[in-house]
Amino acid sequence: MKQQEKAPEVLFVGGAGKAPLSIDVVAMALEQARSRGMVTRLLSHPDDIPHTQRAIDLADSVHALEFTDAATAVAWSVEHAADDPRPRVVFTGREPALGPAARVAEALGAAGNPPSSVDTVMNKDACRTFLARAGFRQPAVRLCQNRQEAEQAMLETRGPWVVKPRVGGGSLGVSMVSHTRDLPGALDLLPGEGPFLVEEFVEGEEYSVEGLFLEGSPHVLAVTAKHKLPPPYFVEVGHSLPAPLPEHVGRCVTDTVTDALKALKLQFGLFHVELWLTADGIVLGEVHARLAGGYIHRMLAHAVPGLEMFGAVFDDALGRPPTAAALSCTRAGASRFFTPPAGRLVAVEGWEEASAHPAVVAAELRVAPGEVIVPYRHSEERVGALAVGADTVQEAEELVGSLVDSVRFVVEPAAERAS
């Protein structure tokens, strides 16, 4: 017991969210921490605890905490550390917990990102401004307080435009408008009150870059190709990695992203950076100081043999030698989200066979007969996904496409849209 009490501890600020993807991410991270002999504690919102039993069962303890209040998270963590001194790692995979986690790490003297850097990347217009001033190409963006300011921004710039929240992810509240008459509908989609952004729509293929920090420096694991539904919404319905890019383009993407992360002074954990390849070069999109969604963590685990990305972060924070010397893709992965017709679900056919395929690395089905399927406007409305691993990205894309096509959603008309 004495040896266990001296074991390093990892605090998972925010614990797991209610979505299956969030639970799976935290479960993988917990397993990799426990395999290293670490004590694991979840700092979870009380509302999430009843819905995240799989993660809770893997942790040594769970503490009900309003983690989005940074002061509350810091106070609890400092008091806990005073009662139980030992080496600690502070980690989160959740967007709302990034700021509080950075402040907890700072208060404990643990490895972490500077809170000011996290604040910058979480504020989309602030990050745009910072990167533009640092010499990176960015979409033109205007911060607007109301419809009148948004209309003025549209009159002074070239469309089409993207209306989006200032803070957030998952494409929630994000839509494209081509004329001022489309603006009221776009504003109705915004979550809550407060300032919002009117941004230049970028013409180009969209990608993301996934990686982790080792000894304070960014290390790219893969460039991911995105598959999206057509505008006016921007819901991702698939990913492929590593993206089949020419070597010189991939190198330029990697260099641009690592330079941007260094400029932002991010230095800890995982990263997910979005970008477009345009006729005029690379345009950086949003920067996230966290892992990507879309079961990319499962695909990376297959594509990079020997990779334990969360464990690598924990080892690095504790000054331990890395568990794998080479972290690069030698295999591939692909995911697809189902895009069934809207209506009331009667049955799902072929799911058991498709999800049981030996190449499947992640399978999610979030709807049951009787529930209403709606046209997607953001990622939380997606009803399920399959992700596979293969030797090449072409094989992975062909396989996941055939598996998704083999699943049939039987629906009937529904009278109204589900909230």
What structural keywords apply?
419 residues; alpha+beta; Rossmann fold; Dna Ligase, domain 1; D-amino Acid Aminotransferase, Chain A, domain 1; 4 domains; eight-stranded antiparallel sheet; four-stranded parallel sheet; 14 helices; 27% strand; ATP-dep_AA_Ligase; nucleotide-binding; ATP-grasp domain-containing protein
What does this structure look like?
This protein is α+β, with helices and mostly antiparallel strands and 419 residues long. It is built from 14 helices and 19 strands. It has helices at residues 2-5, 20-34, 53-58, 70-83, 98-108, 115-122, 124-133, 147-156, 183-189, 247-263, 296-303, 309-317, 351-355, 393-405; strands at 9-13, 39-44, 61-64, 88-91, 141-144, 161-165, 175-177, 196-200, 205-214, 217-228, 236-241, 270-278, 281-288, 332-337, 343-349, 360-365, 372-373, 384-390, 408-412. Strands 13-12-9-10-11-14-18-16 form an eight-stranded antiparallel beta sheet, with helices on both faces. A four-stranded parallel beta sheet has the order 3-2-1-4, with helices on both faces. Helix 3 (53-58) links the parallel strand 2 and strand 3. Helix 2 crosses helix 12 (309-317), helix 4 runs parallel beside helix 5 and helix 5 (98-108) runs antiparallel to helix 6. The chain is globular. The termini are far apart. The mean pLDDT is 93.
Strand tally, please?
19
Strand order of the largest sheet: 13-12-9-10-11-14-18-16
End-to-end Cα distance:
50 Å
Helix content: 25-40%
**Number of H- or I-type helical stretches:** 14
CA radius of gyration: 21 Å
Keywords: ATP-binding, Ligase, Nucleotide-binding
Pfam family, one: LAL_C2
Organism: Streptomyces xantholiticus
Domain ATP-grasp: 128-318
